[in-house]
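Progress against Task 2.4 (sequence-to-structure conversion) is shown through the following example record, which the project officer requested during the mid-term review.
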Amino acid sequence: MKVFLTGASGFVGSAILKKLVSAGHQVTGLIQDKEYKEKIKSAGGTPVVGDLLVPGPWKEAVPGHDAVISVSSPYKITDKLSKDEAKRRANTHTEMVKNLLNAARGSNVKAVILTYHVTAFGSQGESWVSEVMPVKPVGLAIPIAEGYWDMEKAARKANVPTIEVFPGWTYGPGSWFSEYLVAGLTNGMPVLVGPGLNYKSLIHIDDLAEGYRLILEKMPVGERYCLVDSNPVRQKEFANFVARELGRPEPQPVDYTFFAKQYGEVLAETLDSSCRVSNNKARRELGFMPQWDSFRNGIPDVLGRMGILPEKKEFPKAAGF
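Structure tokens generated for the chain above:
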């Protein structure tokens, strides 16, 4: 299958690119900076340089593909964002996606696969979250999902079928996991906002890429899928586990207001949100079977890939739930 992939040089995009190429698909990777052309080529893809806000070769390329996968992101977790800035980026991201949808209008593109995040369903406390819930983005989901209904309307107007993907907190080398959590624990920076009893739904980068492959090949037009592992975990338990793997003391919780002032209200809201997500639909309809079905085996794998050899020390174990 011929696939047009946005965000192809990023953390998630590059993993999807490699997965799809290894499965025999032809992938055109959209990049904004020509310095990433060799990265795309070395992974087996065909690079196209362009900006979704500006008409260019990318726009002419889209109709020649069987499917489009949008995974470009308007933020990094290390960005210090206010709510106003998050909404400004949401407006920009929405326009980019609308342009992508319009480029697929009247073509043979079977579907545009749109990417959001599980926090687009809002903070749901102890409740289980699934695909049937309404979109009410919090924190870092605001830049990618605040314009959800505008993107939905644009797809209908262009008569372009879509599939919606809501990944969990995707961890792997080079992600928020290394740039924020591992770096924070290593350098003694705050990583635990509030008491840490809120839920996080995680997924290993390899499993996420496999989820996109399944969606592409099964092409369930009009559906939504949450791609997460089967073990949601409380923020405190997860942070404590990673700290122990790194041979570091368990992190101390910090006040929400203090954290928001230091690192931005959007990141504070993201970390404080609770999203306990089920992957039942993806398992049932896609045959999605995560290889790393728990952070307890996924995190050691990622730390190994990062070249980190944990220095084992005895620290109090975090309570289970």
